[in-house]
Amino acid sequence: MARYGQAFKDSVVAKLLPPESASLQQVSLQTGVSESTLERWLSDALAKPAQVMQWTPAARFNALLTTAAMDEHSKNEWCRSHGIYPQELEQWRLSAEQGLGAQAADSSASTRKQDRKRIQALERELRRKEKALAETAALLVLSKKLEAMMREDGEE
User: Are 49 and 63 members of one domain?
Assistant: First the structure.
């Protein structure tokens, strides 16, 4: 008779419970544990006081999508049937929004950094061109003065 650790039992029972709700046959085939053993583990888990179920991020997201369009009464009923509180849904929604906001902030921070570098490069180029233009203007003025002086010398 094989002995399984509590962590393994908990993970297998979690597959049988919502949100996954896999069938006994599926889980039995996946894990190699007989259906009768799975039934016993499931009944033991249901007989214990309710523990906080570990919802995966994907399951949380699916729960949020499922309940998003529901009215308050339907949402409360759905929560009771899945063993969670409506406040938990609200917390999941807020954390999802914060996560999305953090990603947007990260991407906008990198964009701002790239923009700053581009602005600095453009400002350097502008300063270089302004200096070249000023030098050219100075040379033009000097050449005109030289021409004017040469004409004066030639006329005298």
Answer: no
**21 vs 7, 17, 57, 82, 96, CA distance in Å?**
18, 5, 16, 11, 24
State how far the Cα of 111 lies from the Cα of 124, in Å rounded to an integer: 20
> Burial of 12 by CB count in 10 Å (0-12 exposed, 13-18 middle, 19+ buried)?
buried
Convert the pLDDT of each residue in 84-131 to its tens digit. Answer: 888 988 998 998 888 877 666 667 778 888 999 999 999 999 999 999
Residue listed under structure tokens 């006081």:
49
Q: Global pTM?
A: 0.37
Q: Are 84 and 53 in contact (CB under 8 A)?
A: yes
Mean pLDDT for the chain overall: 86
Same domain, 14 and 70: no
Please state whether the peptide bond connecting residue 57 to the residue before it is cis, i.e. omega within 30 degrees of 0: no
Cβ neighbours for 9, distance < 8 A, ≥ 6 positions apart: 41
Give domain status of residue 142, yes or no. Answer: no
Q: Are residues 32 and 86 in the same domain?
A: no
Task: Determine how many CB atoms are found less than 10 A away from the CB of residue 9.
Answer: 17
Of 27, 121, 144, 131, whose CA–CA distance to 10 is shortest? 27
